[in-house]
Amino acid sequence: MRVGLVVPCYIDVFYPEVGIAALELLERLGVEVDYPFDQTCCGQPMANSGCEADSRATEEHFIGLFSRFEYIVIPSGSCTHHVRNKFIAAPPGPERDQVSKHVYDLIEFLHDVLKVNEFPWSEFPHKVALHNSCSAVRGLHMASMSERVHDPYFNKPKALLEKVKGIELVDFPRHDECCGFGGTFSATEEAVSARMGYDKLGFIQRSQPEYIVSSDMSCLMHLQGCGRRLGTEVKFRHIAQLLNGDHA
Amino acid sequence: MSVHPVVDQASNAARFLADRSREEYFDTLMWSLREARDRSASEVPEWEQLRDLGSAIKEHTLSHLADYLEQFEASAKRNGVEVHWAHDAHEHNQIVAEILSRHGAKQLIKSKSMLTEECDMRRYLENRGVTVTETDLGERIQQLDDEPPAHIVGPAWQKSPEDVARVFAKAYGSDPNNAAPVYLAHEMRVHTRALIEKADAGMTGANFAVAETGTVVTATNEGNADLSGNVPRLRICSVGIEKIVPTHRDLAVFIRLLSRSAVGMPITQYTSHFRAPRRDGEMHIILVDNGRSERLGMEKFWQSLKCIRCGACMNTCPVYRRSGGLSYGSTYMGPIGIIMMPTFDIRRFSELPFSSTLNGSCSNVCPVKINIHEQIYAWREVMDEKHQIKLAKKSAMVAAGEVLSHPELYRIVTAAGETTLKRLPRFAIYNDFNAWGKHRETPLPAGQTFHEWYKANRRKA
Ligand code: SF4
């Protein structure tokens, strides 16, 4: 099985260890991973700001690099949501469709395609709070949504984390309320964005976890920024790092 | 051309947030309504089917709107009601003023109506010598404090009981230190009952207008719509044309959805059906367009006309709860406000679509399944097309588009050795770490990018 790996721009620059963990994890699971060397970004920052025309060239570049893959895997719910559901800046065509239809968040790929049952190399003997991003929950339906009170409960990232030895997952109030990142929103509406981040940390810390873990590093970048300003001790990890066997 | 300045929701919100206790009070109150809505929806096994049905009935009605409006008019006339058509806010206000002056009416009592807010009717009438008294508790509080509603269901929810005690003390001379709700409600009643009794005319909005019978329906908890509607001989009812439902069977679906979505109660205290004037009186219904027909023709946005004004999207919106309702500078606020207001004035409300994280919770709670967050996203594009995006942001996006579509450029900008805070790929958050850094630490670039690591460790020569 051949997979094209996308390493989102903010992971590339700020959190390379997350890209490495995703790559190594896929390889451990017997997947042949290609990292198209000329990749940049999926176009989301511009499109998300209304500037769809300005994301066109970037999306075309993305299509050029990734349309040959049967599986395109991104360790980011928001990028996956963009490529799957909002990828309309480039002109329509079979290659664009191919990319949108074959893109997976890393969690979906592990849970739904590979159907991984165990991560024998993993062990994380810590108290962990799992934060699922809005893109993951309401965009990609990786977990049931709190507003849909009659839907059966499911939570794919959680189901995978439960396979990690020694992990203790804790709950917290308003578990799928937005953390306040929102891409450009975090700068244009910085006061509300930060307040939402502080509140999210406040709710999570009621159960005193050592780590906050998510499949979206952009939420964590924001929460980490808030946490450092507030002087909190809690640490942040991408879910790929835990599944790949990081012990701390 | 718009004469109003662009509403700066973000700065307004920052001012609201500066008072932490107020913000926390509002957020907690709004979230408790969201929780009440969840509990209430979970008690109705067919909840999701009801939402589908509500949405389908509205879509059907809106796509046959002209027919149903005519049917409504004919039914209302049969009931002895005088029906008026208003093309816009100004025409609506003129019609009201004309009806009142025909009867020499100077004292108007009114039960909450967002439509009359939309038309800025109170000011229009007061300039013509008519005294308008709000009879809805929340609306009256806002009127006495000279503030517009902060929420479409509870106009004064942004105020604490202590705030209300202060407002009443100033207006009524009541005890400023007694914030007990029973005391405040009593003060309100004492001071408005007299006005209701001697009013010349009464006015209400409508939650629904039933085409088959010509009935207008209001859903309230205080019963004051009944007072405004029944006490004076002259009754005027303003109805937005999107409020039409075909039959009473259809109405039942919305009655089940409305109050559960709004405040988590199965039904409001009063669901009042007004069909005909009292025997010795007159009843007027004004059907108001004010931009609705135009919106109906907008492919991406017509679905916002399905709205039944329950406010659930506002209660669940994490941005609204932390911004306050007044920050939107508009008649309708929160998620539904964001997608409706630009149709009234695109320039003035050009920033509103950016006051959202696009988290999607609003669309999930909406009882008539409006794709609210997708419309917010679509409005952003419209703002770009119509050149309503701020120059600084637009330039940043053009530059980002340039860098991100050219790998060589991208590598230069992101190269770890070269990276200083000045040259980081700030595009991810719109080139502005200064704003980001006000309340947060900025992320630190790693010693080596993933790309460089890959090149050093994995790239086959
Ligand atoms: S958009 Fe939907 S949730 Fe919001 S007020 Fe209207 S009906 Fe209620």
At CATH level 2, the architecture of the largest domain in chain A is 3-Layer(aba) Sandwich
Summarize the biggest pleated sheet of chain B.
Answer: 6 strands, parallel
CATH fold name of the largest domain in chain A: Rossmann fold
Number of helices of chain B: 22
Instruction: Estimate the global geometry of chain B from the Cα principal axes.
Output: globular
* Radius of gyration from the alpha-carbon trace of chain A, in angstroms: 17 Å
Number of domains of chain B: 3
Number of strands of chain A: 8
The percentage helix of chain B is 40-55%
> Which small molecules are bound?
iron/sulfur cluster
What count of domains describes the coordinates of chain A? 2
Strand content of chain B: 5-15%
Report the total helices of chain A: 13
**CATH class category name of the largest domain in chain A:** Alpha Beta
What spatial form of chain A do the alpha-carbon principal axes imply? globular
CATH-scheme architecture of the largest domain in chain B: 3-Layer(aba) Sandwich
Structural class of chain A: alpha/beta
Please tell me about this protein's structure.
By secondary structure, chain A is of the alpha/beta class. Chain A is built from 13 helices and eight strands. A four-stranded parallel sheet of chain A has the order 2-1-3-4, sandwiched between helices. A four-stranded parallel sheet of chain A has the order 6-5-7-8. The model of chain A has no long low-confidence stretch (mean pLDDT 95). By secondary structure, chain B is of the alpha/beta class. Chain B has three domains: 44-290, NagB/RpiA/CoA transferase-like (Rossmann fold); 302-385, no CATH class; 391-457, no CATH class. Helices cover 50% and strands 10% of the residues of chain B. Chain B has helices at 9-17, 20-42, 47-63, 65-78, 89-102, 114-118, 121-126, 137-144, 161-172, 181-198, 224-230, 248-263, 292-296, 312-316, 318-323, 334-344, 361-365, 372-385, 391-404, 407-414, 433-436, 450-457; strands at residues 82-86, 107-110, 131-134, 201-204, 208-210, 215-220, 234-240, 244-245, 270-274, 282-288.
